[in-house]
Design goal:
486 residues; alpha/beta; eight-stranded mixed sheet; globular; binds pyridoxal-5'-phosphate; 13% strand; single chain
């Protein structure tokens, strides 16, 4: 079985094995009933002591992932039908791969009717017709865009418009020379990791954090350190206590309406974080995917990038949420030598983003239409947030807490510690309801008593019905569990 052992890690060997196997079982890569290798065989493969494997198996059994049947072997306990093929493809579960959290993406499959797992905006709220019209026009007027490469750094006109947009809407003054166009922010994170992170480099993130960023850094062999967030964002007081021991090469944060917690980092903490990065010569990656999606007419505080005087901050502006995920356009703003390095990384990855779509999205940045769209989007999302919270209060007020998100797409629910939301997910999926279990948002030691509920994907009616159904089932589940544990 494919398990990566890091002997330099502070984490014990049995916990490393346990965590990776847990990921495989929870994500469905290790299917129900799969027979696991014997202690000796597995220990031989991983070059560890059989006692270490025994300890890991015992731990997984305690957590309900394995059945250890004396005389027969060790089996993955029935986690429910995970929809993966279980016949001629079974051999693939032992293939080496380096995707850790990304395995959880299959929870977003459309086969679940009540999708509360997907931090994506309902298609009806996005300007599909406007974009389709512009693409058609582009194809007629400039078919050349189909038969040429884009400049690797991105179309010049688009970079100019994005620099103007950032000054007008994100209080960030920059110039088009400092803007790199990427295929979404996911690619930007990948480019940055590929450029700056190698085995053993320390990456600090918020805990919890955006799950798909975790994979990118782990894939590069990073040693990840998680610093908790509270309602004012990353706990800089805690970071200041450990940063000397673990000097980071890179700090990845999502300060506005953070994914998954929805919190906003205060201006004070932004300044403190920037100071620490300067002192330790670290890079801050400021992922500003949700900037425009603020509620109550209250935009987020100044970005760290706007306070950065010496190129410590790489700022990522995504447009998947505010405009459309399908266009795959993101922008990276950086200074000094970094823009050239990242452009080289982009060249080696894909030689530039498609020109057609870069040209087609341009008019959106120039029209009044964009401002009206953002305004409507904010109102629609705030309404969905409010409905969700009102309905949840009817069912789970006593047992669940959350920080009211002041923008963005997600509500982060915290349950009593006895509740395991991985288990809850399996229960709700039987009723075709899905959410993101909190455990997917931590690189090493997951907390199991949280979940992320995204209120943005469903129509208003679907959402209301879905949250009622979710609330009823969660209430029943929590009361049963707490009753049993008293
Ligand atoms: C915090 C964060 N960063 C980046 C992304 C990826 O965005 P994009 O679609 O621009 O690649 C997401 C998507 O949900 C996100 O939540």
């Amino acid at each position: 079985m494919n398990i990566h052992i890091n002997r330099q890690s502070d984490e014990s060997l049995h916990m490393q094995i346990c965590r990776q196997m847990e990921d495989k079982i929870r994500s469905g890569l290790l299917g129900n009933g799969t027979k696991l290798p014997s202690l000796r065989k597995f220990a031989g493969q991983l070059k560890v002591n059989p006692l270490t494997i025994n300890k890991a198996y015992k731990e997984l059994e305690k957590k309900g992932y394995l059945d250890i049947i004396h005389g027969k072997g060790v089996f993955v306990k029935n986690q429910k039908d995970n929809g993966l093929p279980k016949n001629q493809y079974d051999w693939q579960s032992s293939l080496s791969h380096y995707l850790f959290r990304s395995q959880f993406f299959h929870h977003h499959q459309p086969r679940y009717q009540v999708q509360l797992s997907n931090a994506v905006i309902h298609a009806g709220l996005l300007p599909a017709h406007f974009l389709a019209k512009e693409i058609k026009k582009m194809l007629e007027e400039e078919p050349r865009a189909l038969v040429t490469y884009s400049p690797v750094q991105g179309d010049e006109e688009l970079r100019f418009e994005i620099a103007e947009y950032l000054a007008a809407h994100c209080s960030l003054e920059t110039s088009m020379e400092n803007v790199l166009i990427t295929s979404g922010i996911q690619q930007a994170i990948e480019l940055i990791a590929k450029t700056f992170i190698g085995p053993g480099d320390i990456v600090i993130t918020e805990a919890p954090t955006y799950s798909a960023a975790i994979d990118v850094f782990l894939n590069r062999g990073a040693k990840m350190i998680s610093v908790p967030v509270d309602e004012h964002g990353l706990r800089t007081d805690l970071l200041s206590q450990i940063i000397h021991k673990y000097p980071p090469k890179l700090i990845y944060v999502n300060p506005n309406f953070q994914n998954p917690t929805g919190t906003v980092m205060s201006l004070q903490r932004r300044k403190e974080l920037l100071e620490m990065a300067q002192l330790h010569e670290a890079i801050i990656v400021e992922d500003d995917t949700f900037h425009e999606l603020f509620f109550d007419n209250t935009p987020p505080p100044l970005s760290m990038k706007s306070l950065d005087r010496d190129g410590h901050v790489i700022y990522l502006k995504g447009f998947s949420k505010a405009i459309a995920p399908g266009v795959r356009i993101g922008a990276v703003v950086s200074d000094g030598a970094i823009p050239r390095l990242l452009t080289s990384a982009k060249a080696s990855m894909d030689l530039g983003s498609p020109l057609l779509i870069q040209k087609a999205i341009l008019p959106f940045f120039k029209t009044q239409r964009m401002l009206e769209h953002m305004e409507k989007l904010r109102i629609a999302l705030q309404l969905r947030r409010d409905h969700t919270m009102e309905i949840l209060k009817q069912y789970v007020d006593d047992h669940v807490s959350w920080v009211v998100p002041k923008g963005g797409l997600n509500l982060w629910l915290t349950f009593p510690k006895q509740i395991n939301t991985d288990e809850l997910l399996l229960e709700l999926q039987k009723h075709s309801i899905t959410f993101l279990p909190g455990s997917a948002c931590y690189p090493y030691d997951p907390e199991f008593h949280h979940l992320r509920l995204s209120y943005s994907l469903l129509s208003e009616d679907e959402l209301k019905k879905g949250v009622h159904a979710f609330g009823q089932l969660v209430k029943k589940y929590v009361e049963e569990k707490l009753g049993n544990s008293e």
